[in-house]
Design goal:
single chain, 299 residues, alpha+beta, Ubiquitin-like (UB roll), N-terminal domain of TfIIb, 3 domains, three-stranded antiparallel β-sheet, 21% helix, globular
């Protein structure tokens, strides 16, 4: 009987498998505002325009969320297209000719901003004010909508919901859903003028599926969702971003290594966010990372 190999003899190690090199994406040539640009295949018009330093206004778009095309502020003119197209989601195609600042585009953006501001309170939406000034928007041309008449919802210690400032951008729904948290605690309920952000069966937030991660706050562009501490400081006239220091640090709670952006005013932490471009968090945090810093203020 032939004896097998001695198990104590080390087996020669063969070559390790190597990952094949990733192919560079094919480049797409197009023209934006009369300037040629080469963008990776699969990029959007918005991303290609940013490569040229062209600022396209956005409200419902965020780099770490799937585009949903609801605010229509980013629309651009595409030669050969009957309608204006959303720059945040329209993929680049070879030979495209795009105009981001034509008279038709400016008129559309101005009207959208006016209609949005006529129905909601945009006083805590800094980007909105900048865009309105840029396009000469005059919301007073339209009668005020009923949305601003809603009372502020305060039903927990962490954050408040002021749907009188909500423009239904869908960012909070995306962050609560498959783009980040996968909790699906909120969604759009109703249709037309009755459309609102709501929990299931309009139950109180504390009785819903919400896990209070606060990722909805992190993506809200208008202040409709806000830290309760910030809300109370604003109501008391104490909130002053010019006096705040912003510092990046690492969350102390677990080993994931999430980056926290700490906002401090008068030597007290007033809120915590996370950078959207960070490869670990992509702007999202859990309840401990976003809200679990109060102990620092207790000296």
């Amino acid at each position: 009987m032939t004896e097998g190999p001695d198990p104590r003899t080390p087996v020669p190690r063969g070559p390790l498998p190597e990952t094949p090199p990733r192919r560079a994406p094919r480049k797409v040539e197009l023209t934006i505002d009369g300037r040629p640009v080469s963008a990776p295949e699969g990029a959007t018009i918005l991303q290609a325009a940013r490569e040229l330093g062209i600022e396209t206004p956005t409200l419902c778009y965020l780099e770490n969320l799937t585009p949903v095309n609801v605010c229509r502020v980013c629309v651009v003119e595409l030669e050969g297209s009957r309608t204006l197209v959303p720059a945040c989601s329209r993929k680049v195609e070879p030979g495209m000719t795009v105009h981001t600042d034509s008279e038709r585009v400016r008129h559309s953006r101005k009207l959208v901003l006016e209609l949005l501001a006529s129905g909601v309170d945009v006083s805590t939406a800094p980007d909105f004010a900048r865009f309105a000034e840029r396009y000469g928007a005059q919301p007073e041309r339209f009668a005020a909508g009923a949305t601003v008449a809603q009372p502020v919802k305060i039903d927990n210690e962490l954050y408040v919901r002021d749907y009188g400032k909500c423009i239904l951008c869908y960012k909070c729904v995306s962050a609560c859903g498959s783009d980040a948290q996968n909790t699906f605690a909120i969604a759009i309920a109703g249709r037309g003028f009755d459309a609102v952000i709501s929990t299931e069966y309009d139950t109180p937030l504390t009785d819903s599926a919400c896990v209070f991660c606060g990722n909805c706050i992190g993506v809200c562009p208008t202040g409709a969702l806000m830290f309760r501490g910030e809300f109370e400081m604003r109501a008391a006239g104490q909130w002053d971003e010019t006096r705040q220091q912003v510092t990046d640090t690492i969350c102390p709670y677990c080993g994931v290594g999430c980056t926290l952006t700490v906002h401090a005013q008068d030597d007290r932490i007033v809120k915590v966010t996370s950078p959207a471009e960070h490869p670990i968090t992509r702007g999202h945090l859990c309840i401990k990372g976003r809200f679990g810093w109060q102990y620092v203020n207790e000296r």
